Amino acid sequence: MTGLNPLKEPRPVAVTADDAGEPVAVVLGGRRLAVERIEDVWRIDDEWWREEVSRLYYRLLLEAGRPLVVFHDLIRGHWCEQSY
Amino acid sequence: MRIACVLIPHFPVAVERRRDPSLNGRSTVIGETPDQRKAVLDCSPEAEAQGVRAGMPLRPALALCRDAVFLPPHPSRYSDVFDSMLAVLEGFSPEVEPSSLGRAYLNSDGLARHYEGELDLGERIIRSLKEASGLVAGVGVAEGKFVAWTAAITSEPGQVCTVPVGKEREFLQPLDVSLLPASPDTLRRLDLYGLHTIGDLATLSPGPLQAQFGVEGMRLWDLARGIDSEPLRPRRCEETMSETLRFPAAAVSVEALVVACRRLLMRLHWRLRGRAVRRLRLRAALWGERSWEKTLTFHEAVTDWERMLFIVKSVLTNAALPAPVEELTIELSGITEERGRQSTLFAEKAGLRRQLGETARQLRVRWGRPLVSRVVEVEPWSRLPERRHALIDYEP
Q1: Does A76 touch chain B (CB under 8 A)?
Q2: Nearest to A7 among B249, B324, B375 (CB)
Q3: Can you name the CATH fold of B1-165?
Q4: Nearest CA to B6 among B180, B178, B141?
């Protein structure tokens, strides 16, 4: 028995959000990095026929110019980062 | 030749009832759900009594039998149980012919001497099958396949019926003419002629039957007199090899299935070590405890796994699988000896690939697991990044 190993799997990440639910800071490698700018926001609702997926993606520019894509899982409530 | 026919009528229903005993005594129809335009694969005797027949569309089946339980078919499950049934029978005789699901013939010439007669042989077969599979068979022992089959089908489940040599015609005489392997049109015409029992047919002279029904008429006349020259065609024990892949999430796209097949065929190709293959069986475990399978027989023995993949891909593209696939298995059989192949004179690229393959193989041997991977597209159009690509082990 063998298997396929999916690439670009989401990884849980600690995100601080403001009252509107938008990310204001992200903890990466034990360091808290402030969000300088939200460059893009999009939502994906998919795979309702198996385990339903509903995600709100943010393309962020963190302090020191570091880019990062995170999403808020609207079903389970947690945050993940993901290469997009 | 003395032949024993081992018969489990309504085999798919019997298998489903063994799995779910609450179906016992209830009208059961195996096909799909009645809203689908598919045919009845099998039905229980209770449903049959209400007019349902195998092969009829599901909607009329629902109209005839409104209280029936409709189940999706599980071909892999049935063939697995049938294979185990054949294995049990091969413990009694080396010559076993699988006829159809739930029906097998075995050469019982001389076997009775090892037991206390043919009745004892039949009872032991029934007992062994029940212990191995939980299914109850009927057994008929007679000269020729047709008489053995009629003996099995007219006996109660769990019973043995033996027809002594020379008593075939007498045994068949009172039986309904519809037991003969004739086309529906022929059976209808026999009924119109007032020929209702096999005995009615046997008393006729062959001339009029041949004039009315041609070659089929002569064959029916022979069968009606208990003469069946059809030889036993035992299955050959042959080497098979299979590989299975379980998907992390049930696959719905043909592309994902093709990627999985590619992976499985590469592994099988490595195990084949240059030998060629005549048959390939694709088996899929589907979401909701369903299954699907398809057997492909190649026109000529194939050694090239990419050619196999091409054929498999076209099958998967045309097959409408009824549910997402959770697990996929490829089984190869009809494996033949190594064949010579003409290689190309200028094969630099092939040489590089061979080098890479050799390195990957050495790493695998050294570390006990594959260390080189290949990125493949799975569902490249998916909006979820993790669905688009996957890593598979690089197989040289």
Answers
A1: no
A2: B375
A3: Alpha-Beta Plaits (3.30.70)
A4: B141
Distance to chain B for A9, nearest Cα, Å = 5
Q: Which amino acid is at B324?
A: P
Distance (Å, whole) CA B313 – CA B308 = 8
d(CA B205, CA B218): 10
The pLDDT assigned to B361 comes to 82
CATH number of B172-236: 1.10.150.20
Does any CB of chain B come closer than 8 Å to the CB of residue A84?
yes
As a whole number of angstroms, the distance between CA B390 and CA B386 comes to: 8
Q: Measure CA A11 to chain center.
A: 8
Residue B145 to residue A81: CA distance in whole angstroms? 68
What pTM did the predictor assign? 0.59
- Alpha carbon B360 to chain centroid, angstroms: 38
Residue A62 covered by a domain:
yes
Query: How many Å apart are CA B167 and CA B148, to the nearest integer?
Result: 12
pLDDT digits (tens, 9 = 90+) for B297-310: 887 788 888 889 99
> What Å distances lie between residue B374 and B242, B285, B319, CA to CA?
22, 25, 28
**In chain A, what residues touch B370 (CB-CB under 8 Å)?**
none
Q: Do B248 and A6 touch (CB under 8 A)?
A: yes
DSSP three-state, residue B369: coil
B-chain residue closest to A84, CA distance:
B385
Out of A9, A50, A51, name the one closest to residue B386 (CB): A9
Q: Say which range, A40-54, B5-19, B106-120, B329-343, has the weakest mean pLDDT.
A: B329-343
Query: Domains in chain A: how many in total?
Result: 1
- Tell me if B5 sits within 8 A of B132, measured CB to CB: no
CATH class, range B238-341: alpha beta
* Substitution target from B383, B389, B393, B395 for chain A, most A beta carbons within 10 A: B383
**Mutate which of A4, A53, A74 to disrupt the B interface (most B C-beta within 10 Å)?**
A4
Indicate the helix (H) or strand (E) that contains B186. Answer: helix B184-192
Report yes or no: A19 at the B interface, CB cutoff 8 Å. Answer: no
**B81 vs B11: CA distance, rounded Å:** 10
Residue among B92, B203, B199 at smallest CA distance from B141: B92
Residue B341 banded pLDDT, cuts 50, 70, 90: low
ipTM of the modeled complex: 0.88
State the count of interchain CB pairs (< 8 A) between A and B.
66
